[in-house]
Amino acid sequence: MSASAARRVWAIVYRHLALYRRSWPRVFELMYWPSLQMLVWGFVSAWLASLGPGAGPFAAGVLLGGVLLWEVALRSQMGFAISFLEEIWSRNLGHVFVSPIRPEELVAALIAMSLLRTLAGVLPAAGLAWLFYGFGLFDAGPVVVAFFALLLMMGWAVALGVTALILRHGAGAEALAWGVLFGVTPFAAVFYPVSVLPGPMQFVSLALPAAHVFEGLRAALLEGRTAWEHLAAALALNLAWMAALGRLFLAQFEAARERGALLTIGE
User: Fold this and answer.
1) Is residue 222 helix, strand or coil?
2) Residue 47 to residues 51, 58, 74, 121, 211: CA-CA distances in angstroms?
3) What is the rounded distance in angstroms from the CA atom of residue 169 to the CA atom of residue 261?
4) Domain tally for the chain?
């Protein structure tokens, strides 16, 4: 390769490196997925090893239930955030707020779209789990409806925080729409009980609504009881999360409107 060609190659490389220099979300994403996979499957392995021989059938049911319910939180969060991003990508966000629509009304519309996207994604998956693996998620009883609702609420709360960061940081934070809730997975106790986690991580875990939902799922599947204490804790935490992150979203929206970012965000 000639010196001039090498300089041209370096120019393109430097252009992309400059993006990382100015955007901490992009730098964080580089180490995000490898670390996440190691933590989640490491804790799953530790839990399965503690069960001993003969525990395979009920462990499989818990894992399938965890996968299906965690998709509820993931799809609700991504459905909300991606619907918001579609307004940005189509350069429509500024036009939306030229109309009489209020931020709260936009949030309500995004929640409605999130619900539709979640149902369209999760219900077929639940049907496939029953068809191919004989696992019926609703075998745990009507309490599954409460699990659905609580995880939907958590997804919406996280999505409010994500959209607030997008309003603040622009395109550099768009990757959070796909990845932020995956980062919560090691603490959410989706595939293993909270007791498997090291002590300090347990305190973080119990501050998440999802951890209480999945503790309740394991109680329903393995013990045949409804863990009302976990459901109550998940509801209280969801309300606190939605109040705090909703205020953050509204504050960032007002800041973006004042600096004219609603017309230029994503550029």
Assistant:
1) helix
2) 7, 13, 23, 29, 15
3) 10
4) 1
Q: pTM of this prediction?
A: 0.77
Q: How many CB atoms lie within 10 A of CB 123?
A: 12
pLDDT bucket at 187, cuts 50 / 70 / 90: confident
In a domain, 248, yes or no: yes
- Separation between Cα atoms, residue 62 and residue 190, nearest integer Å: 9
Q: Is residue 23 part of a domain?
A: no
To which residue do tokens 């209280």 refer? Answer: 236
The yes-or-no verdict on residue 247 having pLDDT over 90 is: yes
Q: What are phi and psi of 141, to 5 degrees?
A: 105, 180
129: Cβ contacts below 8 Å, ≥ 6 apart: 64, 68, 135, 136, 137
Torsion region of 53: left, alpha or beta (phi above 0 gives left; psi -120 to 50 gives alpha): beta
17 within some domain: no
Answer yes or no: are the C-beta atoms of 245 and 164 closer than 8 Å. Answer: yes
